[in-house]
Specification:
Number of helices: 1
Strand content: over 45%
Order of helices and strands: EEEEEEEEEEEEEEEEEEEEEEHEE
Structural class: mainly beta
Radius of gyration: 21 Å
Distance between the termini: 32 Å
Shape: elongated
Length: 315
Amino acid sequence: MSIDEHLDPIPDSFILQPPVFHPVIPYGTTIFGGLYAGKMVMLQGVVPLRAHTRFQVDFQCGCCLHPRPDIAFHFNPRFYTVKPHVICNTLQSGLWQKEVRWPGIALQRGASFLILFLFDNEEVKVSVNGQHFLHYRYRLPLSRVDTLAISGDILVKAVGFLNVNPFVEGSREYPVGYPFLLYSPRLEVPCSRALPRGLWPGQVIVVRGLVLKEPKDFTLSLRDGATHVPVTLRASFTDRTLAWVSSWGRKKLISAPFLFHPQRFFEVLLLCQEGGLKLALNGQGLGATSLDQKALEQLRELRISGSVHLYCVHY
């Protein structure tokens, strides 16, 4: 693909923002496409062992310094009191509104954490280390938020911008928020992961990564114990197609925008269900392939190859 070749137009909902690793605090960044219902921000980090103060995560309406921008959601864990807690609030026209206090924050000095911010239509939900912690009703329109700012006594390992699992009906459950693993030897390409129990209905395979600068292809295959390959998902950068490939070589093209572009982040979700697998790319469901339950249970290996750098492989 030449440098000046025109890329397919992609709706904002298909564009995922690359994760940020080890940012210098204080840190601020534009949120690609802004915030909308179904967007999730994931924060991985460590509370310093000698943390005696606080840190804050602000979802802002702009990034200027003067005048100070409005803050739609201010998330402020505090450690300098006898009982650590979180303060949530909204800043509008330079004035703080009535704060909301949430006691019992599950963050400890010297310990790692994973915080998920899930944005719904009317409120933001926050989970800490896999457990729901709080919800905060919007006081400013979510559509105004375009900036993330992090400051205070915190060490940040990664910031991720993700979408809700499109296969989960409603918005009661959190998306698949598995940590990113930067420079993990387990994620070298080609990558092979064992599936000791095969696949079963409800299981989700998650693959997140970055397409390399001069890509050729990307392949995700599922193999059974006899090394047969009953399921293959293949992206070709030569003809810019995405297809299911059967074990006998037959292709079934997937009709959707081609989302694998050089130096762009991507997320693949495969949902196992009775009768086969459903596919989603960058938070959008794109179709399914048929496979009976017995064949799914016999799958024993997940293999990933091609022109990508992997950040996350979970199942």
